[in-house]
UniProtKB/TrEMBL annotation:
Keywords of this entry: Dioxygenase, Iron, Metal-binding, Oxidoreductase, Vitamin C
GO molecular function: dioxygenase activity; iron ion binding; L-ascorbic acid binding; oxidoreductase activity, acting on paired donors, with incorporation or reduction of molecular oxygen
Protein name in the entry: Fe2OG dioxygenase domain-containing protein
Top-level division of the source organism's lineage: Bacteria
Cofactor(s) needed: L-ascorbate
PROSITE patterns according to UniProt: FE2OG_OXY (PS51471)
Native source organism of the sequence: Hypericibacter terrae
Length: 197
């Protein structure tokens, strides 16, 4: 049987929402993140049974915001509204919601980095459909640590402004270049769903 599905024209798009969070809101999120324990960030590889630490690929630390906390719920509500709107206009995915805890990402040591990767992978990362990143730091306070998206063979830098939200399909290749000066924080959320449709 041959059918011709309707094309989905925006799968390459990174949705950029400038100033969705105010600098004050960003500072509050940073303070909340910094008040909690940091863990070495891990990666998933098909070779390893579970999450592994590989500093050549990912050198930074993360804090998972506690599920159910009032502050977490408020953050998820605000992000969720935006994601629903963007998904309706841009991606048209079947989404179930936040599949895992919000990740507060910390680049605090010179050289902290995350090399090219996709967020959609194996194990519990396999249900991720959209990646959502909030730029929490004032770009004047750090050098390097550029979030870049792979576009037609080239790294394309994305908006660095504090409070900007970036949304892209979770298979999109992206990286964070090494931190050269200062510190950078980001908030990362993944919106998950049943196998792709
Ligand atoms: O810190 C960022 O902007 C991106 C982090 C990231 O790509 C990830 O944690 O998967
Ligand atoms: Fe990522």
């Amino acid at each position: 049987m041959v059918t011709t599905p309707t094309p989905n024209p925006n799968l390459h798009v990174t949705a950029t929402v400038r100033g969705y969070f105010t600098p004050r809101e960003c500072e509050r999120i940073v303070a909340l993140g910094k008040s909690q324990l940091a863990h070495d960030a891990t990666i998933m590889t098909p070779e390893a049974a579970g999450p592994t630490i590989d500093r050549s690929k990912r050198s930074n630390s993360v804090t998972w915001f506690k599920q159910g906390d009032a502050a977490t719920q408020a953050l998820q509500a605000k992000l969720g509204r935006l994601v629903q709107d963007v998904n309706k206009d841009v991606y048209h995915f079947d989404l179930a919601g936040f599949g895992e805890a919000l990740q507060f990402t910390r680049y605090e040591s010179i050289g902290d980095t995350y090399t090219w990767h996709q967020d959609l992978g194996i194990g519990n990362t396999s249900t991720r459909k959209l990646s959502v990143i909030v730029q929490l730091s004032d770009p004047a306070t750090y050098r390097g640590c550029d979030l870049q998206i792979y576009k037609e063979g080239e790294p394309a830098a994305v908006e660095r402004n504090q409070g900007t939200v970036l949304i892209f399909p979770a298979w999109t290749l992206h990286r964070v270049t090494p931190l050269e000066e200062g510190v950078r924080y980001s908030l990362v959320a993944w919106i998950s769903g049943e196998p792709f449709r």
